[in-house]
Amino acid sequence: MNIVDIENVSKEYAQHRALDDVSIAIPKGCIFGLLGPNGAGKTSLIRIVNQITGPDSGQIRFDGALLNNSHIARIGYLPEERGLYRKMKVGEQLLYLAQLKGLSQRQAMEKLKIWFEKFDIKNWWDKAVSDLSKGMQQKVQFVSTVLHEPDLIILDEPFSGFDPINANLIRDEILELRQKGSTIIFSTHRMETVEELCDNIALIHKSRKVLDGPQALIKEQFKTNTYYVEHRERLGEIVPSIEVKKETALADGFWRTDIHLKTGQTSNDLIRELITQVEIRSFGENIPTMSEIFMRAVNEVPEA
Amino acid sequence: MRNIFLVLRREYLVRVKKKSFLVMTLLAPLLFAGFYAAVIWIAVGSVDSKTVQVVDESNLFSNEFKNTESLEFEHLPIGIDSAKILFPQSKANALVYIPKDVIKQPKGVRIYAAKNVSMDLKSGIEKTIEKQIENIKLEQAGITHKVLEDSRVNVNSETISLSEEGEKTSSSTAATAIGMFCGFLIYLSVLIYGTQVMRGITEEKTSRIVEVIISSVRPYQLMMGKIIGVALVGLTQFSLWIILSTIITNLASGIMTSRIAGISKVAGISEEEAVQATQANAVTDMLGAFNSLNLPLIVGCFLFFFIGGYLLYSALFGAVGAAVDNDADTQQFMVPITMPIIFSFVFAQFVIRDPDGPLAFWTSMIPFTSPIIMMVRIPFGVPVWELLLSMGLLIIGFAGTIWVASRIYRVGILMYGKKVSYKELAKWIFYK
């Protein structure tokens, strides 16, 4: 079951086409990475899901139903450009934002108490936002995004502006929110985060979706059937059955060789061959990182 | 509706809780009252009394210098030379010397004083002497005091408006005052509160909170909430001003009455007479004139035209706020919006002289000028059909500007780092 189905969505602005026939399915309960270079159309897509703008064509389903006003309260959105009313007090501001998301004043108060305790920020209630540091403001804004316990949380670069300690805190919160059943859409350029957190991803480039699916599957798909071996002496070209992709001298005198398996060859066959040649220190399959996949996917797209 | 309410409540509370709101609300009526008090104070005269010594060699003025609350005259039976010597020791503020042949040579009059003499004192003394000389000369020419009195006529005309209800005393002065006052108030408040709407929107845009907000409420709701919230701030301020001014004016007029009574005692007229003379004539006449104006109609229309004009302009101000990135960039778009407001106020000066002329008619129909011009005209009486037509056009007018503004707003609030041209704004209006 999908929480969001984006179906053939196109969006055009005066000068350019922001989204071109994009279809993405976001399964319930996952952490979904929405990736793409700057200006690819991620923000346009996020804004459409948030109903800030509408698509020119195509449609969005939320939990099976066509996207409508009733869904606003079920979505929490943390835009990349953070912002709060600077002169308003933290408590008042969070109450206001929560009420805009449909909570009653009482409900909002109760939930805020829990979060203020959790983040240990009880003494911030009466402070003006402008008196807080940037990191503190980020925390406040994060609370405002998730306070109404939305089914779908959209986070645009959620870790920017946080120190490692707070970034960890937020990461744990995100994982806990998923545990509780929320779906999280992540838009980020940090591939380590994607690697670590995302179950599924979609990659948008030049207004089109170029890649999507579970991260594990995508990695499988991008595997090049290469293995790496670290060994003492340099591998000679004596073995015709081995296709060497790359040789690198390591700092400690060892060598690292990337080897492409030939058709019909298994990793065991390769080890058997190698064992007779060199002293092996380590051996493993080259699994592409998200960063590599990103680069490859983006570069493979022909210029529009 | 809930969202509009939430937004407007925030907009209202944030502004009303500001210190500057409190200060403005309390200070404005005080300043107003203070200004009036100062004017009255000066008119009535200062409290500390001054002594003026008079050396009258002509013996013509022994009864002419009348003591008032602030001036006390002292006739010295000595010559001017000894008076001059004694003057520094006496506590007198001035010494007036009237020579023997003052009738023939009026320029011989001298006023001596330690410091400069106030214009008031100087002209008062001069007038008294002039008048006495004039009387003496007229009498010498054979004209009696009686003839003189009769020749002085005080014309004080009353304008009476003829209508189906019969004759009714009206006062074009009162109508002018009320009309100009209402027009000015609308002019000022549309500018002040319109700019507040614009500032509020730019603030949301520059602080980037707008994206969060419009993921919860429709841009239209956010804009309307803001416009209505600020309107309520304006209405609150007006009501407080009216209440406070009434209290202060009542207090002040109490003090004024007692002062008038005090003066009349010194002047030797009975208190009642004095109060009648000054108050009855001026104040009750004025009040009567105001009462002859249809006050409920004026107040009702004021509210309507204030709200209508405010909605019309604040929507446009709001669109400007949404179209630019910061306050500094608002200038280029402000001009075409403030122009009609300023023009209406300029037109008002002509309309007030000819409240039924073609300029008055047309400018009170066009929604951009009607809020101010119609308010100027109403105290003079406006045919019902004209009033209704003007109101209807104003409603269409603000519905139109709100529509246009919400289209620009919707696109503008998410547009950053771009100097927008008019052409672009026009495009935004027709975006899907």
Notes on the structure:
- The complex is a heterodimer of chains A (304) and B (432).
- Helices cover 32% and strands 29% of the residues of chain A.
- Chain A has helices at 42-49, 90-100, 105-118, 134-146, 164-179, 191-197, 215-222, 267-275, 290-300, and strands at residues 2-12, 17-27, 31-35, 57-62, 65-66, 75-78, 152-156, 183-187, 200-205, 208-214, 226-231, 243-249, 255-260, 280-285.
- In chain A, strand 12 and strand 13 form a beta hairpin.
- In chain A, helix 2 (90-100) packs parallel to helix 4.
- The longest helix of chain A is centred in the middle third of the chain and has 16 residues, at 164-179.
- The two termini of chain A are 34 Å apart.
- The mean pLDDT of chain A is 88.
- Chain B is of the alpha/beta class and 432 residues long.
- Chain B folds into two domains: 2-40 and 170-429, no CATH class; 50-149, Periplasmic binding protein-like II (D-Maltodextrin-Binding Protein, domain 2, 3-Layer(aba) Sandwich), CATH 3.40.190.10.
- Chain B contains 15 helices and six strands.
- In chain B, the strands form two sheets. Chain B has a four-stranded mixed sheet, with helices on one face. A two-stranded antiparallel ribbon of chain B has the order 5-6.
- In chain B, helix 6 (172-206) packs parallel to helix 10 (295-323) and helix 8 crosses helix 10 (295-323).
- Chain B is elongated.
- Chain B starts with a helix and ends with a helix.
- Chain A binds chain B through residues 14, 47, 50-54, 56, 72, 75, 77, 79, 81-88, 96-97, 99-101, 141, 144, and chain B through 3, 6-7, 10, 14, 203-204, 207-217, 414, 427, 432.
